[in-house]
Specification:
This protein is of the alpha/beta class. It is built from four helices and eleven strands.
Amino acid sequence: MLFHIAKRPAPRLAESGEAVHTALMSSKPIRVIVTGGTFDKHYDEIRGELTFKESHLPEILKLTRVTVPVEIELNQLIDSLQMQDTNRRSVLDACSSAREERIIITHGTDTMAETARLLGPARLPKTIVLTGAMIPYQVQGSDALFNFGTAFMAAQLLPPGVYIIMNGQVFTWDRVRKDREKGVFVEI
């Protein structure tokens, strides 16, 4: 499933004659690959559990008024604890075949680092950022918007490579793990 968010003109950032660093004003398109995880879970009031229905990304992009062209690709909607090697290869294939040089992957936090460790050695000439949430987007106090916004900016500013963006920090694919006791990502 692929959605297209129309490009809006970028806001004017400087008055005539002022220096503007154009590399930071890039409007190159970004592909968001959705894999599921807590980020996209819905609360099912009937069953009293968190399930998957559809991605929250179209709503989030509309809410945040993103002006960069975005393509959303629904790769899968699963909990990352259920993710197998075939699921991870599907993510790698999606990154490899994407036309965009900047990619954000929404992913469950439990195995995000494992997927990053598959993507990193592929050395794709793209900036690939994985992010997720500890609390679902629909639940009050969620970190989903903050993590996604940080990932969105990081995808535009970081050089090619694979990164995990969580808790306001940038981690390289080979130097990160989830601290399950504290519920945060840490450098290794």
